[in-house]
Amino acid sequence: MPWPSRKREKGAGADKKEPDAKVAKTEEETQNKKEEEKSTKPPAGSSKSGWKNWKKTKESDSGGEESKITYCHWLLKSEPESRLEKGVDVKFSIDDLKAQPNQTTFWDGVRNYQARNFLRAMKLGQQAFFYHSNCKEPGIVAIVKIVKEAYPDHTQFDQKDPHYDSTSRKENPKWSMVDVQFVRMTKRFIPLSEIKTHHLAHKEDGGPLKNMMLFVRQRLSIQPLTQEEFDFILSLEEEKPR
């Protein structure tokens, strides 16, 4: 990959437009600042009708049985706009991923232990949303898949890399990364503000986004999704933007 450490973890701040997370194709770092990412104020209205329609469809498909709460999908945040970190531009947009050989790259630079553990939990073939963060309009732009499970992140040993970790040893690496490959663009851009509207409504009516980590641990640039969360968000691409 021609650019070093596009996936940032360190010192992430809030997204520019009513920040929700300012982490790049990387993550917050061990020294996570405690400022929470702010989210765009959701537009007026409720998502209850949309949730009920989605729920009705899901119940007809599964006989009304609720799926178990397991994480089998992911949300990966990356910065689509230029930003220097220790003299290195950490920008990495979905277009940058599509420009890679075989539209595949490694997801390096994660320096948060919980996010690292999520990386290590990823399985071959699992899908993830590619989320543009720390930009004018944060949100989901595409779907990617895991094409190589966790292995040592080489940037932790590179003194020229902004994510160099002098405390990590090659015989026992602290940090891991995975390889991801572009699958497709979402049928439309799904903004953070829209997702938050559904999240707030689901907190009231028990919808699938009620506990979505995007609003519980906003600063993590790698976040797990349940099947219900993934399916519901995917269903939004069929709806007209609010």
From TrEMBL:
Which segments show compositional bias classed as Basic and acidic residues? Answer: 10-40, 56-65
InterPro entries noted in UniProt: 5hmC_binding, EVE_domain, PUA-like_sf, THYN1-like_EVE
Subcellular localization, per the record? Nucleus
Protein's UniProt keywords contain Phosphoprotein: yes
Task: Give me the ranges of the annotated region Disordered.
Answer: 1-65
PANTHER family in the cross-refs: THYMOCYTE NUCLEAR PROTEIN 1 (PTHR14087:SF7)
Q: What is this protein called?
A: Thymocyte nuclear protein 1
